[in-house]
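Sample intake sheet
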Amino acid sequence: MTVTAPSTQGMRWPTVRPWLGTAARLGLAAVWLLAGASKVDDLAASGRAVNAYQVLPYDVATVVGAALPFVELALGVLLLLGLATRLTAGISAALLVIFITGIASAWARGLAIDCGCFGSGGQLAEGQAPSYLPEILRDLGFLVMAGFLLIWPRTPVSVDGWLTGEPVVEDEDE
């Protein structure tokens, strides 16, 4: 008679996953809060940064640029609280795809701009080189975090969990 020890890998994931989700939720919240806070003091500069991508008419770019810091701050607060996490992660993912596409488009078209992700952005001064690849890779990392939360939105210490009263850790039998 052979006795096999139970697999510990299968038991660890249900325990670790919620805490990875909490790290992703709080990390993404910090990103949105920092990004929004860095732009909210100068909405005109944020509009110029969006306009630098040369994909929207100037008037539309300035409105998008002025609204963007408030959207980022709202996403950050919702993620910080853990409220409407799946919806917030979905909006975050969509916004990140737009950002990645915009940066890639600027790179492909040979524009020399600062992405404006954490500040004013816009055209770079003569002799300055854009850093598109690190910006895209950074945003892809944030997109992975948002994707994780889309799949597993339930995390400890969240308003979502408090409202539903459901346990965060799933039973292995499920």
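Comment: The mean pLDDT is 90. The longest strand covers residues 113-114.
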